[in-house]
Amino acid sequence: MKHVLHLASWYPNKRVPQEGDFIQRQLQALSIYAPVYVIALLKDQNRLPGTVTIQQDITDNLHETIAYYNSRVTGIQKMDALLSYISYQKYFRRLIREHISKYGKPDLVHVHVAFRAGMLALWLYRKLKIPYIVTEHWSGYKIQDKHGIFFQSAPVKSLIRKILDQAKVILPVSSNLADDIEKHTSNRNIVVVHNVVNETYFNPPETASSEIFRFLHVSTMGPEKRPELLFTAFKEFSKSRKSGLICLGDIPGNLKGKLKNDDSGKDHIIFKGVVPYEEVAAAMKSCDCLVITSLFETFSCVAVEALLSGLPVISTRVGIVPDLIDETNGIIIETDAELVSAMENIWQNKSVYDRQKIAAAQKGKFSYEHIGARLVEVYNSL
């Protein structure tokens, strides 16, 4: 097995425990087959400027180095951005040098999200001729993402394209994302490797759910998730149906204000906030249908988790959804206007959806063992 050094742009951390948790799960999957070394450098503006703290953890075969830095601040936006860039490069290079000093020169660098960690892969490629590959999760290749590549400065766009162009292979987490990435690189060595879903938690219930038909929504509820579209549709649907809507995820401040001023249907919508992974799985067992109203997704772990729970899914055509959803396990809506009728369709045909069969059809496709083996296969092909 090659000596692979992983450089992560996002990673679970003390500030945001869920940030890049899908990256961590991929690396846990890989660690079944080989030692995994990952470095992530994250900015922490609560730290003393010009300092860095390093945290190292070893869990079985997974070696994690997570560092927190803060750059000096002048109050001049462009100068502060430059100082942050310089600090990021300096501290990340130091961490890489320490890894090489301890473990030797890697055979391969694996970048997780091209910008910003890909800058270090370019540096290593120029300095030590170490090839690199890129796993991509970023939604920024989609024009709908207002913080994405289409809205970045020319130097940032150029840098991202250079990182992608020079990668030995690009590994998007869905075919949908692969299509978007192709528009931004001349590199055509693109291989889809999916995210990991923990099958220990997500499996179908042994008994039927309650008499009340419950829809489930799981998201950050930001603008791109379009929760208001779901709330409006549910209120229309529930006028003549005994039903409920369970929402998991943090509610942004601007959305809280709107919900407070709109009491209609609130008794049937339950907001549980951010809950542990185990509680998400429990909610999927107790509900009857997952609803995704996103404008865009790169993968949609929640869709896979729902299917592994035997839960039919109503979704917009995003992420991995087109590859998974058919008439046996849900409905893909093409326009917003179709959402209410899709909810009615699922409700009327609830007995048609066999939760055991829905779950069985996805079993193993996104497991730790399968995704870890796919990554080993990619490494061996290089």
What key phrases describe this protein's structure?
seven-stranded mixed β-sheet, Rossmann fold, about 35% helix, about 375 residues, alpha/beta, 13 strands
Commentary on this structure:
The protein has helices at 21-30, 77-103, 118-128, 154-166, 175-182, 227-237, 253-260, 277-286, 301-308, 321-324, 339-348, 355-362, 368-381; strands spanning 4-8, 36-43, 51-59, 62-70, 108-112, 132-136, 170-172, 213-218, 243-248, 269-273, 289-292, 313-316, 330-333. It is built from 13 helices and 13 strands. The strands form 2 sheets. It has a 7-stranded mixed sheet, sandwiched between helices. Strand 9, helix 7 and strand 10 (269-273) form a beta-alpha-beta unit. The mean pLDDT is 93. Helix content is 37%, strand content 19%. The protein has 382 residues and is of the alpha/beta class. The longest helix is centred in the first third of the chain and has 27 residues, at 77-103. Helix 3 (118-128) crosses helix 4, helix 6 (227-237) packs across helix 11 (339-348) and helix 9 crosses helix 12 (355-362). The chain folds into 2 domains: 4-196 and 368-381, Glycogen Phosphorylase B (Rossmann fold); 213-362, Rossmann fold (3-Layer(aba) Sandwich).
